[in-house]
């Protein structure tokens, strides 16, 4: 019986620490999870938190929203709109909030289904997020501005979609999508 207890204690002591918790301070002092966007047209997502790790994904879209799910002082573990997890250096991420459309999305003159459509955003369009309220988000892109249903956007929090804030982040994307695949395990 003693060898089993010793193994259990050893396993607990050598187990990796869990990801950042909401009540623990982060290296940046900002909340985790949170949404950010890519600063540059070309950005590398790596399989680990250093330049020595191989590039797992090459992103070629400035403004693409990312969700920070963990961080070190210089590196951020991010989830992209497709659910992929990679590491990015903090210098290539911006605090500017953006969203990406999940489906073809009308941008309405007011936060109301009956309001006229100012424009139609195709699936996959990156828009700048201005604000959200009662399930609608004010967005802007390519010279057009309007209100879009929050559920049609990836890059918004549960409380911005009109629901209650999530009690605990379970690691799933902010909006439904494919399950996350960890590129560090490939």
Name its key features.
186 residues; mainly beta; SH3 type barrels; 2 domains; six-stranded mixed beta sheet; five-stranded antiparallel beta sheet; elongated; signal; SH3-like domain-containing protein; DUF1058
- The best one-word shape is elongated
Number of helices: 1
Radius of gyration: 19 Å
Number of domains: 2
Distance between the termini: 38 Å
Total number of strands: 15
Order of helices and strands: HEEEEEEEEEEEEEEE
Structural class: mainly beta
Task: Kindly provide the name of the CATH class of the largest domain.
Answer: Mainly Beta
With strands numbered from the N-terminus, the spatial order across the biggest sheet is 7-1-4-5-6-15
Write the CATH fold name of the largest domain: SH3 type barrels
Outline the structure in words.
This protein has 186 residues and is mostly beta strands. The protein folds into 2 domains: 20-96, SH3 Domains (SH3 type barrels, Roll); 99-161, Roll (SH3 type barrels), CATH 2.30.30. The protein is 7% helix and 38% strand. The protein has one helix spanning 2-14; strands at residues 34-38, 43-46, 55-59, 65-71, 75-79, 84-89, 93-94, 98-101, 105-108, 117-121, 126-133, 136-141, 144-149, 153-154, 181-182. The strands form 4 sheets. Strands 7-1-4-5-6-15 form a 6-stranded mixed sheet, with no helix packed on it. A hairpin with an 8-residue loop joins strand 2 (43-46) and strand 3 (55-59). The protein is elongated and about 50 Å long. The chain starts with a helix and ends with a strand. Residues 1-21 form the signal peptide. This is SH3-like domain-containing protein. Pfam families: SH3_4. Residues 161-186 are annotated as: Disordered. Keywords: Signal.
């Amino acid at each position: 019986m003693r060898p089993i207890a010793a193994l259990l204690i050893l396993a607990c002591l050598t187990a990796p620490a869990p990801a950042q918790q909401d009540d623990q301070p982060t290296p940046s002092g900002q909340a985790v999870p949170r949404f950010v966007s890519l600063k540059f047209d070309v950005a590398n997502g790596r399989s680990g938190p250093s330049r020595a790790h191989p590039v797992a994904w090459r992103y070629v879209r400035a403004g693409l929203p990312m969700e920070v799910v963990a961080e070190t002082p210089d590196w951020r573990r991010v989830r992209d709109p497709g659910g992929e997890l990679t590491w990015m250096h903090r210098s290539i991420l911006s605090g500017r909030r953006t969203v990406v459309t999940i489906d073809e999305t009308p941008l309405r003159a007011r936060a109301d289904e009956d309001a006229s459509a100012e424009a139609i955003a195709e699936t996959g369009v990156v828009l700048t997020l201005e604000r959200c309220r009662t399930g609608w988000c004010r967005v802007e892109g390519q010279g057009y501005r309007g209100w879009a249903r929050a559920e049609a956007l990836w890059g918004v929090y549960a409380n911005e979609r009109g629901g209650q804030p999530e009690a605990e982040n379970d690691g799933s994307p902010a909006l439904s999508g494919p399950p996350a695949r960890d590129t560090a395990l490939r």
